[in-house]
Amino acid sequence: MSEAIGLILKAMRFSAEKHNDQRRKDSKSSPYINHPIQVAETLYSVGGVRDAALLAAAILHDTIEDTDATPEEIRREFGDEILDLTLEVTDDKSLPKEVRKQLQIETMALKSPRAKALKLADKICNVRDIVHFPPKDWSLKRKREYLAWTEKVVSGARGTNRDLEALYDETLKEGKRILGME
Ligand code: NDP
Ligand code: ZN
Fold it and tell me: How many CA atoms lie within 13 A of 117 on its CB side?
C-alpha cells in the first residue's frame, strides 16, 4: 500500500514537472496536469482500478507524446511495465495527424486490457472537455467530428471495463445532445 502511494506521488511529481509549461486548449488555458490527474481519478473512482502501475501510467500518459520526456527516462524512473503501458497509449508524433488518428482506431482492439481502460478514461475526459471546456477556436463542426472519432476509437476498447464504458456512453450521449448531433 505505501509503495503504491509512493509510486503515484512520484508519477505526479514527474508529470507535473514535465507538463509545467504546458496548458490545455480551453479558454482559461488550464494547467495541463489537471487532465492526467482527472484520467487517473476516473480510472480509480469509476473504473474501480486499484492497479498502481496502471494509475501511474495514467498520470504519465501524455508525457512522452507532449513533453520532452523520453522512453528511456520513464524506464529509468518507473521501470519497463509502466513504460510499456505509457507507450501503448502514445501516438507516434513523427506521423501525420490524420494517420495517427486512423491508427488509434485500427490498433485499439489489439491493445492490452489495461491500455484499453486507460484510453477509455482518456476519451471520457476529452469528450467532457470538448463539450464543456472546449478549445477556444474550435468550430461546432470540429467538435462534432472529434466526438465521432472518439466513438470509433472506443469501439475497439470495449469488453474490458463495463463501468468506464457506461460512463463513456453517457458522456458521449450528453455531448451529442448539447452539440445538437441527434
Ligand atoms: P486535436 O488532436 O488537435 O485536439 C484534440 C486533443 O487535444 C484531445 O485529444 C486532447 O488530447 C487535447 N486537448 C487539449 N485541451 C483540450 C480541451 N480543452 N478539450 C479537449 N481536448 C483537449 O483534435 P483533432 O485534430 O482530432 O480535431 C478533431 C476533429 O476535427 C478531427 O476529426 C479532424 O478531422 C477535424 N478537424 C476539423 C477542422 C476544421 O476546421 N473543421 C480542422 C482540423 C481538424 P490529450 O488527451 O492528448 O490531451
Ligand atoms: Zn490525454
Answer: 25
Question: Cα(45)–Cα(149) distance, rounded to whole angstroms?
Answer: 25
- Say whether 170 sits in a helix, a strand or coil: helix
Q: For residue 65, indicate whether it is catalytic.
A: yes
Q: Is 66 a catalytic residue?
A: yes
Confidence of residue 182 (pLDDT cuts 50, 70, 90): confident
Q: Is the predicted pLDDT of residue 1 greater than 90, yes or no?
A: no
Domains of the chain plus CATH, in order, are: 2-178 (1.10.3210.10)
For residue 150, which amino acid is it? T
Does residue 90 line the site of ligand 1, with CB under 6 A?
A: no
Of the residues 41, 51, 66, 84, which is catalytic? 66
